[in-house]
Protein backbone atom coordinates (compact mmCIF):
# COMPACT_ATOMS: atom_id res chain seq x y z
CA UNK A 1 0.00 0.00 0.00
CA UNK A 2 1.40 3.43 -0.92
CA UNK A 3 1.70 6.17 1.74
CA UNK A 4 -1.19 7.96 0.07
CA UNK A 5 -3.38 4.84 0.23
CA UNK A 6 -2.38 4.23 3.85
CA UNK A 7 -3.41 7.71 4.91
CA UNK A 8 -6.70 7.36 2.95
CA UNK A 9 -7.39 4.04 4.72
CA UNK A 10 -6.64 5.60 8.09
CA UNK A 11 -9.15 8.40 7.51
CA UNK A 12 -11.86 6.14 6.03
CA UNK A 13 -14.61 5.84 8.59
CA UNK A 14 -16.23 2.45 9.00
CA UNK A 15 -19.74 1.72 10.19
CA UNK A 16 -21.19 -1.69 10.97
CA UNK A 17 -24.99 -1.95 10.93
CA UNK A 18 -26.63 -5.38 10.62
CA UNK A 19 -27.87 -4.64 7.11
CA UNK A 20 -26.88 -2.06 4.49
CA UNK A 21 -29.45 -1.14 1.87
CA UNK A 22 -28.26 0.78 -1.19
CA UNK A 23 -30.92 3.10 -2.67
CA UNK A 24 -33.81 5.01 -1.07
CA UNK A 25 -36.39 4.09 -3.71
CA UNK A 26 -39.43 1.88 -3.20
CA UNK A 27 -37.51 -1.41 -2.92
CA UNK A 28 -34.92 0.04 -0.52
CA UNK A 29 -37.42 1.79 1.77
CA UNK A 30 -39.70 -1.27 2.09
CA UNK A 31 -36.72 -3.58 2.67
CA UNK A 32 -35.19 -1.33 5.33
CA UNK A 33 -38.52 -0.65 7.09
CA UNK A 34 -39.16 -4.41 7.32
CA UNK A 35 -35.71 -4.97 8.86
CA UNK A 36 -35.99 -2.04 11.29
CA UNK A 37 -39.37 -3.33 12.46
CA UNK A 38 -37.60 -6.58 13.45
CA UNK A 39 -35.26 -4.47 15.63
CA UNK A 40 -32.11 -4.83 13.55
CA UNK A 41 -29.81 -1.91 12.72
CA UNK A 42 -30.25 -0.87 9.12
CA UNK A 43 -28.87 2.03 7.14
CA UNK A 44 -29.94 3.18 3.67
CA UNK A 45 -27.23 4.73 1.53
CA UNK A 46 -28.62 7.14 -1.07
CA UNK A 47 -26.54 9.03 -3.61
CA UNK A 48 -28.99 11.94 -3.80
CA UNK A 49 -29.19 14.76 -1.28
CA UNK A 50 -31.91 14.69 1.35
CA UNK A 51 -33.90 17.28 -0.64
CA UNK A 52 -33.69 15.36 -3.94
CA UNK A 53 -34.22 11.86 -2.53
CA UNK A 54 -37.45 10.30 -3.80
CA UNK A 55 -37.42 12.38 -7.00
CA UNK A 56 -37.49 9.50 -9.47
CA UNK A 57 -38.52 9.31 -13.15
CA UNK A 58 -41.91 7.62 -13.30
CA UNK A 59 -45.23 7.58 -15.13
CA UNK A 60 -46.84 8.01 -11.69
CA UNK A 61 -49.34 5.16 -12.12
CA UNK A 62 -49.44 3.09 -8.94
CA UNK A 63 -51.18 -0.25 -9.38
CA UNK A 64 -52.12 -2.50 -6.49
CA UNK A 65 -51.81 0.19 -3.80
CA UNK A 66 -54.65 -1.51 -1.90
CA UNK A 67 -52.41 -4.42 -0.96
CA UNK A 68 -48.98 -2.89 -0.42
CA UNK A 69 -46.72 -4.43 2.25
CA UNK A 70 -47.54 -3.15 5.73
CA UNK A 71 -43.99 -2.17 6.75
CA UNK A 72 -44.96 1.34 5.62
CA UNK A 73 -48.69 1.81 6.28
CA UNK A 74 -50.86 2.72 3.32
CA UNK A 75 -52.23 5.71 5.27
CA UNK A 76 -48.71 7.22 5.03
CA UNK A 77 -48.76 7.05 1.23
CA UNK A 78 -52.32 8.15 0.58
CA UNK A 79 -51.70 11.92 0.65
CA UNK A 80 -49.49 11.40 -2.45
CA UNK A 81 -52.40 9.81 -4.39
CA UNK A 82 -53.61 12.71 -6.51
CA UNK A 83 -56.08 10.82 -8.70
CA UNK A 84 -57.91 7.70 -7.55
CA UNK A 85 -60.67 7.98 -10.15
CA UNK A 86 -58.86 6.15 -12.98
CA UNK A 87 -60.59 2.92 -13.96
CA UNK A 88 -59.57 2.22 -17.54
CA UNK A 89 -56.88 2.45 -20.16
CA UNK A 90 -57.52 4.47 -23.30
CA UNK A 91 -55.52 3.05 -26.20
CA UNK A 92 -55.28 5.48 -29.08
CA UNK A 93 -54.54 3.69 -32.35
CA UNK A 94 -54.03 6.35 -35.02
CA UNK A 95 -53.20 3.74 -37.70
CA UNK A 96 -56.76 2.38 -37.35
CA UNK A 97 -58.38 5.68 -36.39
CA UNK A 98 -59.63 3.90 -33.28
CA UNK A 99 -59.68 4.46 -29.53
CA UNK A 100 -59.94 1.35 -27.36
CA UNK A 101 -61.30 1.69 -23.83
CA UNK A 102 -59.98 -1.16 -21.70
CA UNK A 103 -60.90 -1.68 -18.03
CA UNK A 104 -58.03 -1.84 -15.56
CA UNK A 105 -58.54 -4.55 -12.95
CA UNK A 106 -57.74 -3.79 -9.26
CA UNK A 107 -57.01 -0.51 -7.51
CA UNK A 108 -55.04 2.15 -9.32
CA UNK A 109 -53.93 5.63 -8.32
CA UNK A 110 -52.02 8.28 -10.22
CA UNK A 111 -49.61 9.81 -7.74
CA UNK A 112 -47.29 12.72 -7.19
CA UNK A 113 -44.19 10.52 -7.36
CA UNK A 114 -41.85 12.87 -5.52
CA UNK A 115 -44.33 13.29 -2.67
CA UNK A 116 -44.74 9.48 -2.60
CA UNK A 117 -40.93 9.18 -2.52
CA UNK A 118 -40.71 11.51 0.48
CA UNK A 119 -43.50 9.64 2.25
CA UNK A 120 -41.92 6.20 1.94
CA UNK A 121 -38.68 7.69 3.29
CA UNK A 122 -40.61 9.21 6.21
CA UNK A 123 -42.36 5.87 6.75
CA UNK A 124 -39.02 4.04 6.93
CA UNK A 125 -37.50 6.72 9.17
CA UNK A 126 -40.47 6.47 11.54
CA UNK A 127 -39.66 2.82 12.27
CA UNK A 128 -35.96 3.44 12.89
CA UNK A 129 -34.17 3.30 9.52
CA UNK A 130 -31.04 5.44 9.39
CA UNK A 131 -30.54 7.37 6.10
CA UNK A 132 -27.16 8.48 4.78
CA UNK A 133 -27.78 10.88 1.88
CA UNK A 134 -25.18 12.21 -0.50
CA UNK A 135 -23.53 8.79 -0.26
CA UNK A 136 -22.49 7.20 -3.55
CA UNK A 137 -21.68 3.49 -3.29
CA UNK A 138 -18.82 2.65 -5.63
CA UNK A 139 -17.56 -0.75 -4.52
CA UNK A 140 -18.54 -3.98 -2.78
CA UNK A 141 -16.28 -5.89 -0.37
CA UNK A 142 -16.09 -9.70 -0.34
CA UNK A 143 -14.28 -12.46 1.57
CA UNK A 144 -11.94 -14.83 -0.28
CA UNK A 145 -14.76 -17.35 -0.68
CA UNK A 146 -17.00 -14.69 -2.24
CA UNK A 147 -19.39 -13.72 0.59
CA UNK A 148 -20.30 -10.04 0.41
CA UNK A 149 -19.29 -8.23 3.60
CA UNK A 150 -20.17 -4.62 2.89
CA UNK A 151 -19.74 -1.67 0.55
CA UNK A 152 -17.45 1.28 0.00
CA UNK A 153 -18.85 4.70 -0.67
CA UNK A 154 -18.10 8.38 -0.92
CA UNK A 155 -20.19 10.29 1.60
CA UNK A 156 -20.25 14.05 1.15
CA UNK A 157 -16.89 13.78 -0.59
CA UNK A 158 -15.28 11.54 2.08
CA UNK A 159 -14.56 7.80 1.73
CA UNK A 160 -16.67 5.52 3.95
CA UNK A 161 -16.80 1.79 4.51
CA UNK A 162 -19.92 -0.02 5.64
CA UNK A 163 -19.63 -3.57 6.98
CA UNK A 164 -22.79 -5.64 7.28
CA UNK A 165 -23.99 -9.24 7.44
CA UNK A 166 -26.27 -8.54 4.47
CA UNK A 167 -26.15 -5.96 1.67
CA UNK A 168 -29.43 -5.31 -0.15
CA UNK A 169 -28.90 -3.84 -3.59
CA UNK A 170 -31.87 -1.55 -4.25
CA UNK A 171 -29.89 0.80 -6.50
CA UNK A 172 -32.31 0.57 -9.43
CA UNK A 173 -31.80 -0.24 -13.11
CA UNK A 174 -28.30 -1.25 -14.18
CA UNK A 175 -27.12 -1.16 -10.56
CA UNK A 176 -23.44 -0.32 -10.40
CA UNK A 177 -22.98 -2.71 -7.46
CA UNK A 178 -23.38 -5.69 -9.76
CA UNK A 179 -20.35 -4.55 -11.77
CA UNK A 180 -18.24 -4.98 -8.65
CA UNK A 181 -19.43 -8.27 -7.13
CA UNK A 182 -17.63 -11.47 -8.13
CA UNK A 183 -20.62 -13.79 -8.58
CA UNK A 184 -18.61 -16.82 -9.71
CA UNK A 185 -19.41 -18.79 -6.52
CA UNK A 186 -23.20 -18.41 -6.73
CA UNK A 187 -26.17 -18.74 -9.09
CA UNK A 188 -26.83 -14.94 -9.14
CA UNK A 189 -28.14 -14.05 -12.62
CA UNK A 190 -25.52 -12.17 -14.63
CA UNK A 191 -27.22 -12.64 -18.00
CA UNK A 192 -28.15 -8.95 -18.15
CA UNK A 193 -27.76 -6.79 -21.22
CA UNK A 194 -28.68 -3.18 -22.06
CA UNK A 195 -31.11 -4.50 -24.70
CA UNK A 196 -33.28 -5.86 -21.82
CA UNK A 197 -34.08 -2.26 -20.84
CA UNK A 198 -36.34 0.48 -22.03
CA UNK A 199 -35.18 4.06 -22.19
CA UNK A 200 -37.96 6.34 -20.94
CA UNK A 201 -38.58 10.03 -20.39
CA UNK A 202 -41.42 12.02 -18.85
CA UNK A 203 -42.56 15.59 -18.27
CA UNK A 204 -45.10 16.96 -15.79
CA UNK A 205 -47.35 19.22 -17.85
CA UNK A 206 -49.93 21.75 -16.66
CA UNK A 207 -52.92 22.62 -18.83
CA UNK A 208 -55.47 25.44 -18.31
CA UNK A 209 -58.63 23.49 -19.13
CA UNK A 210 -59.43 20.11 -17.51
CA UNK A 211 -58.78 17.17 -19.85
CA UNK A 212 -61.77 14.97 -20.70
CA UNK A 213 -59.89 11.73 -19.98
CA UNK A 214 -58.99 12.30 -16.32
CA UNK A 215 -60.46 8.83 -15.51
CA UNK A 216 -58.09 7.03 -17.91
CA UNK A 217 -54.48 6.13 -18.49
CA UNK A 218 -53.89 7.13 -22.11
CA UNK A 219 -51.53 5.04 -24.23
CA UNK A 220 -50.48 5.55 -27.81
CA UNK A 221 -47.96 3.58 -29.88
CA UNK A 222 -44.88 5.37 -31.07
CA UNK A 223 -44.07 4.94 -34.73
CA UNK A 224 -42.32 1.70 -33.82
CA UNK A 225 -43.95 -1.30 -32.14
CA UNK A 226 -41.41 -1.47 -29.33
CA UNK A 227 -42.36 1.92 -27.88
CA UNK A 228 -45.33 3.87 -26.57
CA UNK A 229 -46.35 7.31 -25.42
CA UNK A 230 -48.42 7.81 -22.29
CA UNK A 231 -50.56 10.56 -20.78
CA UNK A 232 -51.42 9.85 -17.15
CA UNK A 233 -53.62 12.42 -15.36
CA UNK A 234 -52.32 13.30 -11.88
CA UNK A 235 -55.32 15.63 -11.78
CA UNK A 236 -57.52 16.89 -14.59
CA UNK A 237 -55.02 19.72 -15.26
CA UNK A 238 -51.69 18.12 -14.28
CA UNK A 239 -50.56 15.39 -16.65
CA UNK A 240 -47.58 13.06 -16.58
CA UNK A 241 -46.66 12.82 -20.28
CA UNK A 242 -43.92 10.46 -21.36
CA UNK A 243 -42.63 7.82 -23.70
CA UNK A 244 -40.17 5.01 -23.93
CA UNK A 245 -38.62 2.55 -26.35
CA UNK A 246 -36.96 -0.82 -26.05
CA UNK A 247 -33.19 -0.48 -26.31
CA UNK A 248 -33.04 -3.10 -29.07
CA UNK A 249 -34.24 -0.33 -31.40
CA UNK A 250 -32.48 2.62 -32.96
CA UNK A 251 -32.48 5.32 -30.24
CA UNK A 252 -35.50 7.60 -30.36
CA UNK A 253 -35.21 11.33 -29.79
CA UNK A 254 -37.42 11.12 -26.72
CA UNK A 255 -37.66 14.83 -25.94
CA UNK A 256 -38.42 15.80 -29.57
CA UNK A 257 -40.88 12.96 -30.14
CA UNK A 258 -42.83 13.88 -27.00
CA UNK A 259 -42.81 17.55 -27.95
CA UNK A 260 -44.19 16.71 -31.42
CA UNK A 261 -47.04 14.65 -29.99
CA UNK A 262 -47.89 17.32 -27.40
CA UNK A 263 -47.98 19.97 -30.15
CA UNK A 264 -50.48 17.87 -32.11
CA UNK A 265 -52.92 17.54 -29.20
CA UNK A 266 -55.26 20.52 -28.84
CA UNK A 267 -55.76 19.91 -25.09
CA UNK A 268 -52.07 20.81 -24.55
CA UNK A 269 -52.20 24.20 -26.31
CA UNK A 270 -50.40 26.72 -24.07
CA UNK A 271 -49.36 23.99 -21.61
CA UNK A 272 -46.50 24.58 -19.18
CA UNK A 273 -43.86 22.00 -18.40
CA UNK A 274 -42.88 21.84 -14.73
CA UNK A 275 -40.44 18.95 -14.38
CA UNK A 276 -38.43 16.73 -16.77
CA UNK A 277 -36.78 13.40 -15.96
CA UNK A 278 -35.60 10.31 -17.82
CA UNK A 279 -34.22 6.90 -16.85
CA UNK A 280 -33.87 3.28 -17.95
CA UNK A 281 -36.27 0.61 -16.74
CA UNK A 282 -35.98 -3.15 -17.09
CA UNK A 283 -38.46 -4.73 -19.52
CA UNK A 284 -37.25 -8.29 -19.16
CA UNK A 285 -37.92 -11.42 -17.16
CA UNK A 286 -36.97 -11.24 -13.46
CA UNK A 287 -33.47 -12.41 -12.57
CA UNK A 288 -33.34 -16.23 -12.39
CA UNK A 289 -31.69 -15.75 -9.01
CA UNK A 290 -31.12 -12.46 -7.19
CA UNK A 291 -29.23 -13.92 -4.22
CA UNK A 292 -25.57 -14.40 -3.46
CA UNK A 293 -24.01 -15.07 -0.03
CA UNK A 294 -24.52 -11.90 2.03
CA UNK A 295 -26.21 -10.08 -0.87
CA UNK A 296 -29.60 -9.73 -2.55
CA UNK A 297 -30.82 -7.50 -5.40
CA UNK A 298 -34.37 -6.11 -5.29
CA UNK A 299 -36.72 -4.09 -7.50
CA UNK A 300 -35.31 -2.68 -10.75
CA UNK A 301 -31.88 -4.01 -9.74
CA UNK A 302 -33.31 -7.52 -10.23
CA UNK A 303 -35.71 -6.90 -13.15
CA UNK A 304 -38.89 -6.84 -11.05
CA UNK A 305 -40.99 -4.82 -13.50
CA UNK A 306 -44.05 -5.89 -15.50
CA UNK A 307 -42.35 -5.98 -18.92
CA UNK A 308 -45.51 -5.13 -20.88
CA UNK A 309 -46.73 -2.14 -18.82
CA UNK A 310 -43.43 -0.91 -17.31
CA UNK A 311 -45.06 -0.89 -13.85
CA UNK A 312 -42.40 -1.63 -11.23
CA UNK A 313 -43.41 0.10 -7.99
CA UNK A 314 -45.51 -2.74 -6.55
CA UNK A 315 -42.94 -5.40 -7.49
CA UNK A 316 -40.19 -3.31 -5.88
CA UNK A 317 -42.16 -2.93 -2.62
CA UNK A 318 -42.80 -6.67 -2.35
CA UNK A 319 -39.29 -7.68 -3.40
CA UNK A 320 -38.02 -5.37 -0.64
CA UNK A 321 -40.23 -7.06 1.93
CA UNK A 322 -39.33 -10.61 0.84
CA UNK A 323 -35.58 -9.89 0.74
CA UNK A 324 -35.75 -8.26 4.17
CA UNK A 325 -37.51 -11.30 5.62
CA UNK A 326 -34.82 -13.58 4.16
CA UNK A 327 -32.14 -11.27 5.61
CA UNK A 328 -33.80 -11.43 9.04
CA UNK A 329 -33.75 -15.23 8.85
CA UNK A 330 -30.04 -15.03 7.99
CA UNK A 331 -29.37 -12.71 10.94
CA UNK A 332 -31.29 -14.97 13.31
CA UNK A 333 -29.52 -18.14 12.23
CA UNK A 334 -26.12 -16.55 11.66
CA UNK A 335 -26.12 -18.04 8.15
CA UNK A 336 -26.43 -15.63 5.22
CA UNK A 337 -25.48 -18.20 2.56
CA UNK A 338 -27.30 -18.69 -0.72
CA UNK A 339 -29.43 -21.56 0.62
CA UNK A 340 -30.78 -19.49 3.53
CA UNK A 341 -31.57 -16.48 1.35
CA UNK A 342 -33.05 -18.62 -1.47
CA UNK A 343 -36.58 -18.36 -0.11
CA UNK A 344 -36.52 -14.76 -1.32
CA UNK A 345 -36.23 -15.93 -4.97
CA UNK A 346 -39.07 -18.39 -4.46
CA UNK A 347 -41.42 -15.79 -3.00
CA UNK A 348 -40.73 -13.34 -5.84
CA UNK A 349 -41.40 -16.00 -8.49
CA UNK A 350 -44.51 -17.18 -6.68
CA UNK A 351 -46.00 -13.70 -6.25
CA UNK A 352 -45.25 -11.97 -9.57
CA UNK A 353 -42.01 -13.24 -11.14
CA UNK A 354 -43.58 -16.18 -12.98
CA UNK A 355 -46.29 -13.92 -14.40
CA UNK A 356 -43.76 -11.30 -15.54
CA UNK A 357 -41.61 -13.97 -17.22
CA UNK A 358 -44.68 -15.11 -19.19
CA UNK A 359 -45.54 -11.51 -20.13
CA UNK A 360 -42.00 -11.05 -21.42
CA UNK A 361 -42.91 -13.47 -24.21
CA UNK A 362 -45.35 -10.89 -25.62
CA UNK A 363 -42.66 -8.24 -25.33
CA UNK A 364 -40.41 -10.48 -27.40
CA UNK A 365 -43.20 -10.97 -29.93
CA UNK A 366 -43.68 -7.19 -30.21
CA UNK A 367 -40.08 -6.75 -31.36
CA UNK A 368 -40.71 -9.08 -34.31
CA UNK A 369 -44.16 -7.98 -35.44
CA UNK A 370 -45.18 -5.25 -37.87
CA UNK A 371 -46.56 -2.26 -35.94
CA UNK A 372 -49.57 -1.67 -38.24
CA UNK A 373 -50.52 -5.33 -38.07
CA UNK A 374 -50.25 -5.29 -34.29
CA UNK A 375 -52.38 -2.16 -33.96
CA UNK A 376 -54.98 -3.55 -36.38
CA UNK A 377 -55.19 -6.68 -34.35
CA UNK A 378 -55.45 -4.83 -31.03
CA UNK A 379 -58.27 -2.74 -32.44
CA UNK A 380 -60.17 -5.95 -33.26
CA UNK A 381 -59.71 -7.65 -29.90
CA UNK A 382 -62.24 -7.56 -27.04
CA UNK A 383 -61.01 -4.94 -24.52
CA UNK A 384 -61.59 -6.83 -21.28
CA UNK A 385 -59.64 -9.82 -22.62
CA UNK A 386 -56.74 -7.59 -23.54
CA UNK A 387 -56.73 -6.16 -20.02
CA UNK A 388 -56.69 -9.66 -18.55
CA UNK A 389 -53.76 -10.64 -20.77
CA UNK A 390 -51.83 -7.45 -19.96
CA UNK A 391 -51.92 -7.97 -16.21
CA UNK A 392 -52.23 -11.72 -15.66
CA UNK A 393 -49.99 -13.00 -18.46
CA UNK A 394 -52.76 -15.18 -19.87
CA UNK A 395 -56.42 -15.09 -20.90
CA UNK A 396 -59.03 -17.36 -22.43
CA UNK A 397 -61.64 -16.42 -25.01
CA UNK A 398 -65.00 -18.18 -25.33
CA UNK A 399 -66.26 -19.39 -28.77
CA UNK A 400 -68.73 -16.51 -29.33
CA UNK A 401 -66.15 -13.84 -28.51
CA UNK A 402 -63.56 -15.67 -30.58
CA UNK A 403 -65.89 -15.73 -33.60
CA UNK A 404 -66.63 -11.99 -33.23
CA UNK A 405 -62.93 -11.18 -32.84
CA UNK A 406 -62.10 -13.28 -35.87
CA UNK A 407 -64.69 -11.48 -37.97
CA UNK A 408 -63.47 -8.06 -36.81
CA UNK A 409 -59.86 -8.93 -37.38
CA UNK A 410 -60.01 -10.28 -40.94
CA UNK A 411 -56.83 -9.10 -42.65
CA UNK A 412 -54.79 -9.88 -39.52
CA UNK A 413 -55.30 -13.63 -39.33
CA UNK A 414 -51.62 -14.39 -39.87
CA UNK A 415 -50.81 -12.29 -36.83
CA UNK A 416 -53.62 -13.91 -34.85
CA UNK A 417 -52.23 -17.36 -35.57
CA UNK A 418 -48.83 -16.10 -34.45
CA UNK A 419 -50.40 -14.70 -31.26
CA UNK A 420 -52.23 -17.95 -30.58
CA UNK A 421 -49.03 -19.97 -30.88
CA UNK A 422 -47.15 -17.42 -28.78
CA UNK A 423 -49.79 -17.65 -26.05
CA UNK A 424 -49.24 -21.41 -25.88
CA UNK A 425 -45.52 -20.84 -25.44
CA UNK A 426 -46.20 -18.22 -22.73
CA UNK A 427 -48.53 -20.64 -20.90
CA UNK A 428 -45.86 -23.38 -20.99
CA UNK A 429 -43.33 -20.95 -19.58
CA UNK A 430 -45.70 -19.84 -16.82
CA UNK A 431 -46.15 -23.47 -15.81
CA UNK A 432 -42.40 -23.99 -15.59
CA UNK A 433 -41.90 -20.82 -13.54
CA UNK A 434 -44.62 -22.05 -11.19
CA UNK A 435 -42.30 -24.99 -10.52
CA UNK A 436 -39.32 -22.74 -9.69
CA UNK A 437 -36.73 -24.77 -7.73
CA UNK A 438 -36.66 -24.88 -3.92
CA UNK A 439 -32.87 -24.76 -3.67
CA UNK A 440 -29.93 -23.34 -5.66
CA UNK A 441 -28.55 -26.76 -6.65
CA UNK A 442 -31.65 -27.41 -8.77
CA UNK A 443 -31.48 -24.11 -10.65
CA UNK A 444 -29.23 -25.24 -13.49
CA UNK A 445 -31.53 -28.08 -14.55
CA UNK A 446 -34.56 -25.77 -14.34
CA UNK A 447 -32.74 -23.18 -16.48
CA UNK A 448 -32.01 -25.81 -19.14
CA UNK A 449 -35.73 -26.61 -19.38
CA UNK A 450 -36.59 -22.92 -19.46
CA UNK A 451 -34.02 -22.24 -22.20
CA UNK A 452 -35.55 -25.03 -24.30
CA UNK A 453 -38.93 -23.31 -23.97
CA UNK A 454 -37.34 -19.97 -24.91
CA UNK A 455 -35.94 -21.55 -28.09
CA UNK A 456 -39.54 -22.38 -29.00
CA UNK A 457 -40.58 -18.79 -28.21
CA UNK A 458 -37.97 -17.40 -30.66
CA UNK A 459 -38.98 -19.97 -33.28
CA UNK A 460 -42.69 -19.13 -32.94
CA UNK A 461 -42.32 -15.36 -32.84
CA UNK A 462 -39.45 -15.05 -35.32
CA UNK A 463 -37.76 -12.67 -32.86
CA UNK A 464 -34.01 -12.51 -32.28
CA UNK A 465 -32.98 -14.27 -29.04
CA UNK A 466 -33.26 -11.84 -26.13
CA UNK A 467 -31.21 -13.75 -23.52
C1 LIG B 1 -39.85 7.04 -17.10
C2 LIG B 1 -40.34 5.93 -16.23
C3 LIG B 1 -41.69 5.75 -16.03
C4 LIG B 1 -42.15 4.75 -15.16
N1 LIG B 1 -43.50 4.67 -14.89
C5 LIG B 1 -43.96 3.81 -13.97
C6 LIG B 1 -45.33 3.82 -13.57
O1 LIG B 1 -46.13 4.64 -14.04
N2 LIG B 1 -45.72 2.94 -12.62
C7 LIG B 1 -44.86 2.05 -12.04
O2 LIG B 1 -45.28 1.25 -11.18
N3 LIG B 1 -43.56 2.02 -12.39
C8 LIG B 1 -43.08 2.89 -13.33
N4 LIG B 1 -41.75 2.89 -13.67
C9 LIG B 1 -40.86 1.92 -13.03
C10 LIG B 1 -40.61 2.30 -11.58
O3 LIG B 1 -40.25 3.66 -11.50
C11 LIG B 1 -39.48 1.42 -11.02
O4 LIG B 1 -39.77 0.07 -11.31
C12 LIG B 1 -39.36 1.60 -9.51
O5 LIG B 1 -39.07 2.93 -9.19
C13 LIG B 1 -38.26 0.70 -8.99
O6 LIG B 1 -37.94 1.01 -7.66
P1 LIG B 1 -36.51 0.67 -7.09
O7 LIG B 1 -36.59 1.01 -5.65
O8 LIG B 1 -36.11 -0.69 -7.48
O9 LIG B 1 -35.50 1.65 -7.84
P2 LIG B 1 -35.47 3.24 -7.91
O10 LIG B 1 -36.80 3.81 -7.62
O11 LIG B 1 -34.81 3.58 -9.20
O12 LIG B 1 -34.49 3.64 -6.70
C14 LIG B 1 -33.10 3.43 -6.77
C15 LIG B 1 -32.43 4.40 -5.80
O13 LIG B 1 -31.05 4.04 -5.71
C16 LIG B 1 -30.25 5.22 -5.74
N5 LIG B 1 -28.92 4.81 -6.21
C17 LIG B 1 -28.58 4.33 -7.43
N6 LIG B 1 -27.27 4.06 -7.50
C18 LIG B 1 -26.75 4.37 -6.30
C19 LIG B 1 -25.43 4.30 -5.75
N7 LIG B 1 -24.39 3.86 -6.48
N8 LIG B 1 -25.24 4.71 -4.48
C20 LIG B 1 -26.29 5.16 -3.71
N9 LIG B 1 -27.55 5.25 -4.18
C21 LIG B 1 -27.80 4.85 -5.45
C22 LIG B 1 -31.01 6.13 -6.70
O14 LIG B 1 -30.64 7.48 -6.52
C23 LIG B 1 -32.46 5.85 -6.29
O15 LIG B 1 -32.90 6.70 -5.27
C24 LIG B 1 -41.25 3.87 -14.55
C25 LIG B 1 -39.87 4.02 -14.77
C26 LIG B 1 -39.42 5.03 -15.61
C27 LIG B 1 -37.94 5.18 -15.83
From TrEMBL:
Transmembrane segments: none annotated. Coiled coil: none annotated. GO terms for molecular function: FAD binding; oxidoreductase activity, acting on the CH-CH group of donors, NAD or NADP as acceptor. Pfam families: FAD_binding_3. It comes from the Archaea. Residues 18-317 form the FAD-binding domain. PANTHER family: DIGERANYLGERANYLGLYCEROPHOSPHOLIPID REDUCTASE (PTHR42685:SF18), GERANYLGERANYL DIPHOSPHATE REDUCTASE (PTHR42685). This is Geranylgeranyl reductase.
Amino acid sequence: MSTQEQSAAATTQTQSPDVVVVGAGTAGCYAAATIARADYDVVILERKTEDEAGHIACGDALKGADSFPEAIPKSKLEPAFTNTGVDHGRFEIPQEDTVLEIPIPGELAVIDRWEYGRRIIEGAEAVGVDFHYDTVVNNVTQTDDGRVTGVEAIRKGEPRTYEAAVVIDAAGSLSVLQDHVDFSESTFDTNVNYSHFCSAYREIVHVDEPVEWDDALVFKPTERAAGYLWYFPRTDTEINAGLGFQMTEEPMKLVDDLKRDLENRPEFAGAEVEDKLGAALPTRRPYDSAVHPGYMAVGDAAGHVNPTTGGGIAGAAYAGKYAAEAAIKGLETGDVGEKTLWEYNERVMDHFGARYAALDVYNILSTAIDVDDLMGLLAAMPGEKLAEALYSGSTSIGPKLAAESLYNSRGHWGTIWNFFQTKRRADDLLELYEAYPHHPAALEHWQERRDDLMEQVYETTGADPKY
